[in-house]
Amino acid sequence: xxxxxxxxxxxxRTITNxxxxxxxxxxxxxxxxxxxxxxxxxxxxxxxxxxxxxxPGAGPTKHLSPYSATxxxxxxINLSITISFVAFVAICVxxxxxxxxxxxxxxxxxxxxxxxxxxxxxxxxxxxxxLYSSKTNCGVALCTTLLGNVLMGTWGGPDPNxxxxxxxxxxxxxxxxxxxxASMKAVGDVSAPAAQVSSYTVLTVVMSLGxxxxxxxxxxxxxxxxxxxxxxxxxxLTAASFLMVALLRYV
Length: 251
Description:
Layout: E1 9-10, E2 13-14, H1 20-41, H2 47-54, H3 69-100, H4 104-131, H5 134-152, H6 162-190, H7 196-224, H8 229-247
Antiparallel strand pairs: 1-2
Helix pairs in contact: 3-4, 3-5, 3-6, 3-7, 3-8, 4-6, 5-6, 5-8
């Protein structure tokens, strides 16, 4: 008695050597159609959603608006550092004349040291930007700026000597250069590609405003006292910047 072999079927049709090629093509077309349908039905996600879904280790969240809470804090940090630096340079000459009796040309050397330090930091900042996060670099910049202003104050004691003035000038120049670069990089890190141009435009306006306010700030401090009251005020500005850096983790 011969045993009848059962042939496999596909969609109600028996698979034979003649139709197996056509059935294979039908399977490929059906799989491709199912893939297109699943892609079309997937919900779209914003850059912010993508950053949140990727987890905390995936980098900062990208914002479409240049006026997000994160952006505003970064603008504030840059504004504070700029005001402090411009005021330091503006009051440097009269303060040097007061404590050392130097005239404008000799007192200007101190301001020149700050400028040279700022220029030299353009060589080290790219390395620091690669090694450490923008938030870490902002913290380092604020620490050096704070220490520089502390060294320039008398704090109830004698006027600072030349060594303290030179060290303070180096710290201020380094702190402003690093803080400026770190805040600019941070703005780029948190801006979606479509918002980067507008974000950098706002940051440029903030920096220009900081230079104007720094000059006015120095003039007001000179009217109050030609001593070291400006450096005490700069310490307060730097402390406010530390607070803004700390708030970055909550926005």
